[in-house]
Write a structure and sequence with these properties.
globular, alpha/beta, eight-stranded parallel beta sheet
């Protein structure tokens, strides 16, 4: 599948529980969109996860033509962390395709609350990334509760689910299929469609029978100690 199929809206807001791999997905998505000729800006607004930040791949993104903006790391513990003024460029410049990588819980998601009136006026989507290997969201009911909390904080409505079930380098086909089952259950209970299943390229071909398309990625985000 193409990245434009996932990003059928001009602005995609990526959220999900801490550790779901949403930053890995966001970076791969930005690079894929740039490869399709889009003018892409990715906003790193994740104030929750100190290890996996889009800003750590600034050189890679900029070499591909992706502009990166990020929140103020020095204010990451504030109730309302400082947001870059360039964020308005994503919202107001309709020649840009924007990807907003926000925090992995309702607290992290609240950085967007002040922009909600502007966001709802734009062609945007809130994407919920699921990882069935995260204990807090491995049951459909808990995953839905978590999603509803994020929606309540941001004032936005989720319109798509991404199955990004993984165990880093230990991910198996069975992991992704378990995530597909969880995503299907959440989708059935909420009416929110599953947009795709994420898999590293060696595994992507083994999942062709899934009802939704597979988005192949390569690992860009490494742990600080790797």
């Amino acid at each position: 599948m193409t990245a434009s199929t996932i990003c059928s809206h001009r602005i995609s807001i990526i959220t999900g529980h801490y550790g779901t791999g949403k930053t890995e997905f966001a970076v791969n998505l930005a690079l894929a969109l740039a490869g399709e000729g889009k003018r892409v800006m990715i906003a790193d607004l994740d104030i929750v996860n100190p290890y996996f930040r889009s800003r750590e791949r600034k050189a890679l993104l900029e070499d591909a033509g992706v502009r990166l903006i990020s929140s103020s790391q020095s204010c990451s513990n504030a109730d309302l962390p400082a947001l870059p003024a360039e964020l308005l460029s994503v919202l107001e410049n309709r020649g840009l395709t924007g990807i907003l990588d926000i925090g992995g819980d309702p607290v992290g998601a609240r950085v967007l609350a002040r922009f909600q009136p502007k966001i709802v006026q734009e062609d945007s989507q809130l994407i919920y990334v699921l990882n069935a290997n995260r204990p807090e969201v491995r049951e459909a009911e808990h995953a839905i509760e978590y999603l509803r909390n994020i929606e309540a904080v941001t004032g936005l409505t989720c319109t798509g689910i991404i199955n990004n079930t993984h165990l880093c380098g230990e991910t198996t086909e069975a992991d992704i299929r378990r995530g597909a089952a969880l995503s299907a259950a959440v989708s059935e209970k909420t009416g929110i469609p599953v947009l795709c299943h994420v898999a590293v390229e060696p595994l992507a071909d083994t999942l062709a029978d899934l009802p939704e398309p597979v988005f192949p990625i390569t690992i860009k985000m490494k742990k600080p100690w790797e």
